[in-house]
Amino acid sequence: MSALDVIVSGTMLAQTVRMTIPYACASLGGVLSERSGVVNIALEGILLASALAAVAVQGVTGSAVAGLLAGVVAGALVGLVHAALVVRGRVDAIVSGLALNLALGGGTRFVLRALYGSSSNSPSVRGVRFGEGLGLFARTALDPFVLSTLAVAALCAWGLARTRFGLRLRACGEDPSAAQAVGVDVARTRLVAVTLGGAVCGLGGAALAFELHQFQAGMTGGRGFIALAAVIVAGWRPWPAVGACLAFAALDALQIVLQNQTRVPAQIFAVLPFVATLLALAVVSRRSAGGGAPAGIGKHPA
Amino acid sequence: MLLRIIQNPARIALCYAPVAIAGAPKGEETEVELARTRAVSKRFGAVEAVRRVSCVFRSAEIHAVCGENGAGKSTLLKLVAGMTGPDAGEIVVGGRPLDPHTPREAIRRGVAMVLQHFALVPAFTVLENIVLGSEPVGPFGVLDRGVARARAAAIARDLGVKLPLDARVEALGVGDRQRTEIARALFRDARLVILDEPTAVLTKAEALALYVTLRRLADGGKGIVVVTHKLDEVRAHADVVSVMRRGELVFTRPLDRTAGLDGQIEEVTAAIMGGAGRLRAAGDGGGSAADARSPRGAGAGEAGEAGVAGEDGVAGEDGAAGEEAAGEAVLVVTGVDAGGVLADVSLSLRAGEIVGIAGVEGNGQKELVELLAGDIAPARGTLVVGRTAIIREDRQSEGLVLDASLRDNLVLGELGRFARRGMLDLVALESEARKRLERSGAVRGPHGASASGSPPASGSPPASGGALDLDRPARTLSGGNQQKIVVARALARNADVVVAAQPTRGVDLAASLDIHADLVAAAKRGAGVLVISADLDELRKLASRIVVLARGRIVGEVPPTASDDALGRLMLGIAARADASDASAADGTRPRGAPP
Amino acid sequence: MKLLARVLQAPAVAGLAAGWLAFCLLVWAYGASPREMAALLFEGTWGTSYGAGQVLFKATPLLFTGLAVDLALRAGLFNIGAEGQLAVASLAAGVVGSRLPQATPAIVALPVTIGAAMAAGAAWAAVPALLKGRFGAHEVISTIMMNRIAEGVVGLLVASGLALTGTVRTADVVPGARVPRLDALFPAFRGSAASFAVVLAIAVTALVTLAHRRTRFGREVGLIGLNARAMAAEKVPVRRRLEQALLASGALAGAASLGTVLGYKGYFEEGLGAGAGFGGVAVALLGRGRFGGLVLGALLFGTLQQGGLALNAYVPKELMEVLQGIVICAVALADARLRAAVGEVLTRPLAKPAAPAGGGTP
Prior knowledge:
The complex is a heterotrimer of chains A (about 300), B (about 600) and C (about 350). With about 300 residues, chain A is mostly helical. In chain A, about 75% of the residues lie in helices and about 0% in strands. Chain A has a single domain (about 5-120, about 140-285), classed as ABC transporter involved in vitamin B12 uptake, BtuC (Orthogonal Bundle), CATH 1.10.3470. Chain B has four domains: about 1-110 and about 190-205 and about 215-290, P-loop containing nucleotide triphosphate hydrolases (Rossmann fold), CATH 3.40.50; about 120-190, no CATH class; about 300-385 and about 495-595, P-loop containing nucleotide triphosphate hydrolases (Rossmann fold); about 395-455 and about 470-490, no CATH class. Chain B has 20 helices and 22 strands. Chain B is globular. Chain B starts with 9 loop residues before the first helix and ends in a 5-residue tail after the last strand. Chains in contact: A-B, A-C, B-C. Chains A and C meet through helix 5, helix 11, helix 13 and helix 14 of A and helix 2, helix 6, helix 7, helix 13 and helix 15 of C.
């Protein structure tokens, strides 16, 4: 089979959709966090932490649901820490995010060694078994992770536009001083938003780990950062962010196929998603100065 | 207990006939205490912004709170609105002490504050801004847009204003923004509406319309508090006036409109200035809007001392400078389109001349400054300009690096002058900065040491040494002194053209006078000075002619003696050719370049 | 108690206290004895002259990258890309240093080699600089992407002929390009990998921190970092300065290869110096633009890295990364509190949101 056949195959499409999930969840988490005005580069660390939590808990309980919940809770917790540092502690959000990424990168490996005595990967877990016997299309379209990601995206978009919390969240992101002056509790709103964002991102981490049926040290491979780029490219809007993630995931899937199918050195393809992200970022940043960024991002109420 | 002055709403109608007033004069009405402070104090670091102030705010009246910048009036009302907490004393709102001290709680008790810079979210629509913080919701916190829209529309109707509910606030002018703020206060059933410097950015006509709205609200039983330093507004509209000075409440008293207002306003002025020392200058500067229509320059002969002279003297001097000593042209703008806003702008400026640019904000002033600063290039037409120094409108974000030292700020952008092969000559830099600091006048004056605790008496000699050292961050200066730094830097460059955008906005009276004197001195030295200001009195005082900008075009040029009406019509772009020539017949207005 | 709280507010103290607390907790949770591990940690680092030498060795690249990140930070830019810049620079040092004629004297070989490395670091930083300057793309994301790309590109170049066949390393650099080990002069450091690069690092740090104050470029960059709009209004070429700052930052990051390629291995191999770039971010955040801060920060994180290795047989060395993260958080937290406290005194009466009218009423 030639590379082209693989690329246009249904398998490839299904693969792309499934690979989108961690990206999409992380970027939705990023949208929630950043629309409230808190930059979140901790997405990478959240993905790692939640992936490990999901694997560890499923390993112990044998329950995929428990594992999934553990992933979500771990994500929410990291989000909460990030929010507390930034909102209450007034630590620069980029500094906090960097520190969390550092701590969680080392921390997950530390726990890996503590729990499994390995510095590279965990024993394998079942993950979520779903759709045996169904066709490829149905299996992909009805995949619980795919469905829940879509549901979360819909909820984000609708909630931001149509609910009181969404309105206040956006107000905090656009102009925290103004929001505070009319009685919105900016700190609390941001704490909730970033924590929620962490939970959504945690869903992605769990999905990633279950997809590979194990935790591997550094398994996120920059997905959190690419997801963040997707947020920017999408102008901080939920559905476009999912769309951008789909594009990045397609590149990712393509990269894997090309690595296997051609004789070109693997490194060339490995950098593809990152180069593409860079280009997309450049194009979008140029097209619209600020690109729909919430105006109050990184600002504290007066 | 204060006396209640019986109000006659028709008063306004009499003064400003074109405006229709709804609502009839009231008969019986019970005015209620809405909020009061009891010996409330608030300190920021070493400075006691508010010191043991006890003050009452009632329903159905317009209560003006006056004082210089830094007198503590904004802080006092922010305390009442829960935007900051007191260090001592008590704030009673709705009969009970305010607790906790949050805007949310104050709003719950019916107190809303409209901040000077507005607390609107620019990217939100008017409707979203109105409901934010007290949103009508259905189940699951879902916004009830129908209810929101209906109530907002009803409020707009009650206010007698049109509100573009679905427009984004960032696309609106200041007037609409302010109406949005007021609508928001009413949306949450505020009974006490506090406005901080509401007319600072409004034209006279807009300010008038605002007071009509406010009077309507007061007649409807709302308590209105207006923080202002414009005494003409106090004179025309206030029922009660409180004066603050250096954090203390000097007095609160009703204005008796049956007696002579001049004497009462003079007392207010004296209270604001805290002594007789500058009374005369202050009286002219703050409270003389009523005199504004009389020809200026009468006092030219008597007050000729350079620098700190009374403003009449200043006006007289540069009137002379404009007409007699007009030198060669230092700025010639011919048929310039720029920035997508300026259209067919022609303007010239001679050495030694001060020209004013009037206009409603957002009509091309920003672009004009950018054009002269070289930020944008003309899309059409020609621009011939000598060396230019710009005093930017937004000093805190464009004029200064607030967290850098005064030294760095005084030579900002001129480091090249002090560098040899990239290395700085720190000694030369230091001495130049010191020279400029001394010349800036930020060292002397009542505000020089305001952050260090003990303000020296007004007019005391320069505090030696530590009072204002060059290492101090610009952030620690008062607004007036910050602006003096900016002005000193611009004028030290000995430019041919000095462009001063809103040079005294938000600056207290004493500093304003100094800055005006500096600009006049620059013109005397031979620079052409262009003053762009929303403050017509400022333009009248400084400029020898006033050019009016509307919708990016120059729609007329008037002498400083032109009436408010004539200027106002030009500024609003109402001046069609016929109108303008009418006006010129009446006021000596010369229409020019009116849109075809 | 009050005094204790006061002292804990000092960023350095807060960082050390939090780090120590986390160390004890994590070691204890792992099932080891914090006291024994602490003793072991000390012994493996400052306890012996060998250990101290190893700390200096670890601290050397950290100081360079810390200085690099700090320079960008002054301009208000987060250069998270020191990692990639150093990787590319190290490869350049290895390649250029090994292709010089064998007998090239040090006075030529060392400057040429390190010049090539710094140029490569700057070139790698040029991409985000350009994207920032011309397109307005946020440098945090673009430098992170460039790190990943560097990984791939270095791997590719190594695999496609720059390395000795069958290996992932270049040939040895010529003797003249090598930085001598410290033990050549101080026998006490025998066996440790510390080289005179540490002396160079300290000297460069002193020079650069001085230049921030004494040169036009340094001052303008610092002022731009505080308020770029005001500088642009004063016709300072803000965009160019930002680009230059990122380039200079990349070059300084590249200079870290003095401590790894030229002072330690004598050749480049894939992965050499990995982590020093990220460590530099930590050092810069701790150092906050002060000479002493940067040096102490580099020493602290050098100690943690070396200490991690000393403990690795008992407690996973990743523990130290966690500690790094926690120390950064604690320091940043204390720093923010401190600034808030100072800000309260100095600025509150005048602070106003920068709004169009820019008024100044308290």
